[in-house]
From TrEMBL, chains A, B, C, D:
Binding residue positions for NADP(+): R48, R54
Cofactor descriptive note: Reduced FMN (FMNH(2)).
Organism: Marinobacter antarcticus
Subunit composition and interactions: Homotetramer.
The organism's taxonomic lineage, starting at the top: Bacteria, Pseudomonadati, Pseudomonadota, Gammaproteobacteria, Pseudomonadales
A Pfam short name: Chorismate_synt
Protein name: Chorismate synthase
Residues the record lists as binding FMN: R125, S126, S127, N238, A239, G278, K293, P294, T295, S296, S297, R319
Gene name of the encoded protein: aroC
Length: 364, 364, 364, 364
């Protein structure tokens, strides 16, 4: 209820601060009988891990996850899965300044107002480091969805500041440090990032996530529509400021005759809905897109106040991502996986397993 | 758990189909001692009501709400508030066609896949008629927030298809049938809608909602960030396809030096964050914006399939909104109110009442 | 979250005060396709109804339930089922005394401390009248469990004050106003109740509930054990002060060799566990027993205080049950049904439908 | 939702198997600013710890708890508190037998039916070892309740098989290995346990828990009554088969004139209600009592079946408690503390802090 859990039947509860002893997570409600080992999660964790290219923070974290419970003889048992990642790179440093100042556009000020105390080391609980556990939990959901239902969830960076990917070549996504699906734009992105780093500034990004093979019928009317839960999940990722499903804001200027996805026995003729009708999956690919703000940890000075309300000038040194969006693709995929997993179990609880009572039409 | 409830401490659970006997709602967790009568809700209900201008559906519903419990001698008692609106205009008509066909871009097809049965009369549970109860519940939250904390929640239509409001004059919002804050654009909107109606087509819209006077500290890390819950709430409104907080998708191409809202003892120097930092309210106005798709109920024929998978041509006759966004402003306000109310109670539960442990800086 | 909902997947939320306009309830999560009409609920409601014999309160309530949503063409649609019972016998009376005094052993004093206001008419929300909606919701669960899984849930009064039923003849339970399964004890009970009524006093009772045909596997470790949820459900019924599962308090003085229910391929050799092992159903009958306190609404004067803290003497006139336990059997059955229903859906969500992966052994 | 969480606002989620790598827990919703260290929990953990006398299992577990998050500079920060206890005494042994057989009256059979797989080492998740984490979490709640509200929670063993404590001398409770408040009965208990151990049998027990200083007003109508949540919490403890509040089953044969706790300006004249009226605390001490069954892990052979349904004779060797009730006192206290803590926060959320709107009368 205090917001550190997500999912109703596949429930992920996380703990941990950026510079605390460890990050951890409990997955409750995972179906039994799923083959699972640390390796299944490590692949996704490594994709999110800092320090894999010069374009992300140089903090070094092994991010090695350990399963503490819920798996026996290589299979999930249906009991809660306890996960832990020990923090290894907690560089001892002088926190006297940060403890007294509120960095602009950070959670320092709001945590202090909420709780009256805060763990100021590296942002504490508000650090994006927390998302490591989402990725680990998402990997479990993803494996189940793939094995059991054939669902495939993939994401990519579609915009890096002013640079927009114009081709969607899935093969390319993992060939560059940006998760960019358009190889032609990678050199431009590299140059842009190098200049930005030199400048000391940061930039926003847009990430798209696609789930294919989702059976029709997932999602609950009326408040827990599949798209509403997706919006919740994706907006809960650090730095996200916008979420679109399907046509998104593009539908503001669309006419109904264009937007409506006509159907034929062979399938839908378009997918402006993004795979969700009335909050329930239609069998088409689920399409989501998110905007990530530029990080506010800059070495360029900014105006702020201290804990006593006096004006100060803040400079953030240390190791930071100049574009937090770059590492966000695996996180967005993970949240999509958790939402779909949760809704699959919820659907199965009320309605029995997914079945085909009416003809499922083809996909676009 | 089946998605018909919203809110953890201020919990709104609704029921009712478009052409059923009644719509209803239970508000659980409302603080005791709030003066409340039907009139408090009726004003907002009337703003959402169909048939108030030629630009919305001509279905006539009195939408008269009745309080059945939880209020005694004019005040809330802390026990659940039961609300009901009887459906009056359930025009008897021939449903044989609609019962056999799936209207494109409607929930017909997905409800059928989910449940194997569906109430096809007027869209059943998937009808936007369900939002009447959100408006009623939102009015209770709004009244409490205003009286207890001085919070003011207001919305307006910022785009109608290709027409964009360029001025924000709150006085104008209720002077025209569009909730448009820019009087100069109203004639253009009227002409556009008249042409559209003649054409038989529909159009999308964008709605903005603003909450002023929100104390710093509301919102829960990490999954139930205030903005994540807002995204959930707003995306759960029928026809919404996108949600932005503050700068929204605009931050993709923003640099950090621009986006970060610098602070001085006199206040924040900008509000790109939209009043939320790290998922917690900062004391600045909360800014949200949503995209609503064009309705798919068109008298222009569209291709679809019937329940046996055969191709059909669908024409939707009857009374429909050519721009569902027009009536959406009160609904978006209501969802914002419910989210803030819920988070205020959640905050008070864990942390005690909102207090000022650090200086609250001025608002922009 | 404010306690007016029960069940995680089959969720029952109720509203309504004793002398308010109506009682109501929303059942969210009911599987689609169940044939359902008011008649299915009315039978159970009539068993709970006041005024059916001289041994219960003479308040006359038709307790006619009306389905407002969630059922279409005679079948549940999977959307929320709205139910309502209008209060008809709200005898206008002088409430000036009751509004100023706290009746001993009633909720008057505690509601006032909790909320600062209270609906004092007939106990308001704390009245046992609220249980009518539990019975209606329980009837839906019961019907599903019986049709889908062959589960049968039945209860009976095993003790009325000092008189104990010594035979369990299910045929007898509905042949007398006490739900007593031992016909020989009925005359004794009638005489006892007649004397008690003359005396102006009240008495406690014990009710047993049995569910047969429950498949093994229902119940969730570790906090939501089936027996823990049953204890919650049963203790939430007005006037209940104790709950036992299987041997209950009898096991305090039992040795392990006696208590353990040995198993053979033909079945368990005893059922001290009451059908629950490790919080999960074993396939044996679920056995629960509850204690109900004597009502405190007595015409014999009792010492109390008024709202200003002054001593007063309270006499409760009006129509009251001298043994609230008598009408509790259908309520206890309903709560058992709701718990089993909820756990069946929860089990199905995580694990798929109930199956037989290991031999199910016979029942005792 | 899969049952490994307890509490709505003070939420405890646990993981861990008897012979797995570790036990763990996340406490979400703890108020900020509470001084907290491992030592605060260790005292209670040590009271529950095995091997402290010859009357409990000789398994040696240090049960050393470590705080991984949520505490900074000695105080809680309001973010989730991660706790871990590494399992140290996982004696390697031959599990081939236990993996193929279902021990009678254990959860082996039901877990297998539920999940299709099970961690058979030491009972896996169904082991009472899981309760260590409840004790740790309960210690946090207990400290807050004591410091903030002056609430004191204490328990004792009132019956050990046929031996009943006849005096309640709180000083004695921690002077003997049984938590017995009657020093005169301790020699008898010791002799009884020695004989039982020789015999190879086990015995049940009764534990009472008392909370003093609870303010009036805690508890939520109607399903989450304070007593209903207590029943849930206490019945969820391993081996518990019965729960009583106040007079409990004693009220079956009580008359109303006796049961009703009359009030005077100086206080209540009795406490048959056990401190709860209408599900809400009255300001009197909360009184709960539970029955614990005798353990079924006996070296005396018992009849059972194996995983193929064949008859087998089961003998449980190894280290087991002949009376699991002996170590249950700290667990029952912990669950009482968690329930009260949760209800205090829930009350504060809806109603603001506990206040005295009407005179609080004296305690008995």
């Amino acid at each position: 209820m205090s917001g550190n859990s997500f999912g109703k039947l596949f429930t992920v509860t996380t703990f941990g601060e950026s510079h605390g002893a460890a990050l951890g997570c409990i997955i409750d409600g995972c179906p039994p009988g799923l083959e699972l080992s640390e390796a299944d999660m490590q692949a996704d964790l490594d994709r999110r891990k800092p320090g894999t290219s010069r374009h992300t923070t140089q903090r070094r974290e092994a991010d090695e996850v350990r399963i503490l419970s819920g798996v026996f003889e290589g299979k999930t048992t249906g009991t809660p899965i306890g996960l832990i990642i020990e923090n290894t790179d907690q560089r001892s440093k002088d926190y006297s300044k940060i403890s007294e100042q509120f960095r602009p556009a950070h959670a320092d000020y709001t945590y202090m107002h909420k709780y009256g105390v805060r763990d100021y080391r590296g942002g504490g609980r508000s650090s994006a480091r927390e998302t490591a556990m989402r990725v680990a939990a998402g990997a479990v959901a993803r494996k189940f969805l793939e094995q059991r239902l054939g669902i495939r969830i993939r994401g990519y960076l579609s915009e890096l500041g002013p640079i927009r990917a114009e081709k969607l070549d899935w093969e390319q996504v993992h060939q560059n440090p940006f998760f960019c699906p358009d190889a032609d734009k990678v050199p431009e992105m590299e140059a842009y990032m190098d200049a930005l780093r030199k400048e000391g500034d940061s930039i926003g990004a847009r990430i798209n996530v696609v789930a294919e093979g989702v059976p029709p019928g997932l999602g609950e009317p009326v408040f827990d529509r599949l798209d509403a839960d997706l919006a919740h999940a994706l907006m809960s990722i650090n730095a996200v400021k916008g979420v679109e499903i399907g046509a998104g804001f593009g539908c503001v200027a669309q006419k109904g005759t264009k937007h409506r996805d006509e159907m034929t026995p062979e399938g839908f003729l378009s997918n402006h809905a993004g795979g969700v009708l009335g909050g329930i999956s239609s069998g088409q690919p689920i399409l989501a897109s998110i905007a990530l703000k530029p990080t506010s940890s800059l070495r360029l000075p900014g105006r702020s106040i201290d804990v006593n309300g006096n004006p100060v000038e803040v400079i953030t040194t240390g190791r930071h991502d100049p574009c937090v969006g770059i590492r966000a693709t695996p996180i967005a995929e993970a949240m999509m996986a958790i939402v779909l997993m949760d809704h699959y179990l919820r659907h199965r609880g009320q309605n029995g397993d997914v079945t085909v009572s009416t003809p499922v039409i083809g996909q676009l």
